Amino acid sequence: xxxxxxxxxxxxxxxxxxxxxxxxxxxxxxxxxxxxxxxxxxxxxxxxxxxxxxxxxxxxxxxxxxxxxxxxxxxxxxxxxxxxxxxxxxxxxxxxxxxxxxxxxxxxxxxxxxxxxxxxxxxxxxxxxxxxxxxxxxxxxxxxxxxxxxxxxxxxxxxxxxxxxxxxxxxxxxxxxxxxxxxxxxxxxxxxxxxxxxxxxxxxxxxxxxxxxxxxxxxxxxxxxxxxxxxxxxxxxxxxxxxxxxxxxxxxxxxxxxxxxxxxxxxxxxxxxxxxxxxxxxxxxxxxxxxxxxxx
Length: 296
Ligand SMILES: Cc1cc2nc3c(=O)[nH]c(=O)nc-3n(C[C@H](O)[C@H](O)[C@H](O)COP(=O)(O)O)c2cc1C
Prior knowledge:
Blueprint: E1 5-7, H1 17-21, E2 27-28, E3 37-38, H2 49-53, E4 59-61, H3 80-89, H4 104-115, E5 126-131, H5 134-154, H6 158-162, H7 166-187, E6 199-206, H8 213-230, E7 234-237, H9 239-244, H10 249-254, E8 261-270
Antiparallel strand pairs: 1-4, 2-3, 5-6, 6-8, 7-8
The structure holds flavin mononucleotide (FMN).
The site of flavin mononucleotide has 8 residues, from strand 7 and helix 9.
């Protein structure tokens, strides 16, 4: 749908900032200090940068509710050391407070934070499923463990591996002991997928309209996790669900995933039953600084 974009000539400062930030060349300023013309509104992908940069609020855009266009204030900035401290205190939580439920309004704050993550071509096509029902998570765990059992069985046959691309075969071979340990934990009565967390969030998207579905979902989920942390909640990715869930018609049916969509990421959340007291180190980054001037 083409948006209706207008510039109020009375208040436009004619600096052309909208022309500079719009990567779709929707605005054109033929001469300096003139009101830009709107030449390609049909190319708009609704990023809103024109509205966000206009110092005089001269632009109106039918795709944006003007009351949600809010001035950026100094309090919205975070000092870098505080940000790093906050990032380092996030840990995967695998033990949750059994009695403390997570309120719906709290989960809504996470979903709201997800909206502001960048998406390829500004697709904003992610869809989320929030599960707070223990029986559903138990069923998902049972279906997931079935996938693991099938894989263990299937790859016991050496031919199954030798028919694959060697790199994939090597990866599967190294994953089999992990699959076996998950199955044995599950059979011992543990919950190696969801750790008895009170909430599971699954993100999926229509792959036909999304240019970078996995990246979009990963960024959005991490944004939710950071918001969760700021609200005193713990989180942990559930890699196995999104890695194998799409292979299972039962899982797709249970979650009502449309045929065009794929499950892209999933994580659990709840109030932590453990509290980390220290920051620990990570590997030094492996970086190659290419500083030599390129000579053709
Ligand atoms: C993509 C991804 C998938 C993950 N899947 C799982 C999982 O299925 N189960 C689990 O217990 N942890 C999972 N984790 C958590 C990692 O094990 C964890 O992030 C890592 O050990 C570092 O610990 P930290 O998150 O506490 O910093 C996953 C992490 C990522 C990034």
